[in-house]
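protien #1 (seq + structre)
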Amino acid sequence: MQATRTPFGLHWPIADQDVNERLSWLIAVNTYEAEQRRLYRTASEEEEMRLMQLPLPTRQAFSLFGLLLGILVPAAIFLKIFGYGFSRHIGNTPVMFLICVAMNTACAIFGHRMGGLLSKGINEYERASWTKMLLYSMLIGTCWGAATGAIGGLAFFGIGAIFGAFCAVPVAMIAFPLFTSLHRLLARGGMIDARHFWPLVFGVTMTIAMFILGM
């Protein structure tokens, strides 16, 4: 009886076996190959992904991006507007400082959560045209900004929800397409190496935060 090696690393007989078993094996092989073509745009991408020392899946990457965006950018906004509770002219009280901390914490926690939830379609759109990807990333940026900004603003006596969303949406509509574009260039098979991810995510979020502080 002859045998062959499947893509799964298993030996499988190709003669004298039941027809249904052979058919099932062929279907499994075709499914595996289709999945490989869907995951990797070129033949070398799979090899590059396997060489990553600490690969991060897309959901984790966007969760961490949402976390840092929810920490650094609101902190820059609160520092710019309220002096983060330490301004001599605006809200120089412990209460204002605690409110800023509460809003910042809410933005960080909810931003992390929303980043992961909204990343569901990223892998597919990163393989589509650049136009579709950018439009999709702007859409999820809008959703992230509206939800995260509103939740963070609730800590400001409730009335800050509208102001929070108003501030967060424009920022997220820029941040998400920028991060998604760079993630597309560096990711392989839905994974990005941590050695590339951390400089990327800090670079994007800190650049936006510094731009806000410099306005």
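ok now protien #2
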Amino acid sequence: MSTKFRLVTEVLAEVARTGRPEIARTDEVRETFGSVEAFLLALHHRWRTALVAHLDTLLEDPPADLDAAVHALWADPGLGGRGLRPLLDAHAGHPALAAAQERERVLVRRDLGVEISPAVGLLAAG
């Protein structure tokens, strides 16, 4: 198991265990990832990978209400694993993370025709 993967797993387990969406071991995060920003983007990548995989499965047999299904998937608190969603939500204001999330909204709108408002689900404004 890579050092980065191990650290992500351990940080997310800590969030899930404590219920506190904090980046534990920030010194180790900085040493391993180069910055907290790089760590947050790695977490976003994990969420995005889970989103795309689930969207692919959903599109193999599209439901009658694709918009509702995509919105439900986007807002699924378990997508990507325990602890991930709370940690991303807690850092939603970080510029790199907000920009990455907006890129996902644009792709969903472009590729699926489904509009995901910034006020819906993951990294909701506010």
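The chain has one domain: 3-112.
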